[in-house]
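Dear Dr. L.,

I hope this message finds you well. Following up on our conversation about the binding site, I have prepared a predicted three-dimensional model of the protein together with zinc ion. For your records, I am including the exact sequence and ligand specification that went into the calculation, followed by the structure tokens. Please feel free to forward this to your student if that is useful.
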Amino acid sequence: MAMPDATECEIRIDGAWRSVSLGEAHARHSSAIKRCPTCHGRVSINVNGTAQGGLFLQHRRGHDGCPLMPARFTGEVSLHPQAVE
Ligand SMILES: [Zn+2]
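The resulting structure of the complex is given below.
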């Protein structure tokens, strides 16, 4: 099964969640609250230390129901226990 690509996150603007690319969130909304588009857990955007300089989503708290955390994912999608709504 192909894992979803974590290239977007959701940020809250004026009380509404909007999907934006990681690049845009990082460059223009660095202080906004961000959440994972899949499990709605709080995330931060980290800069990958490689030469490509890629950005990646990091969950503030891990859980095992999010396919964007393949290392922990159990195969069943569930909302984050501390999901932000
Ligand atoms: Zn997630």
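In brief: The pocket of zinc ion is lined by residues 36, 38-39, 41, 59, 66, 68 (CB under 6 Å).

With kind regards,
A. P.
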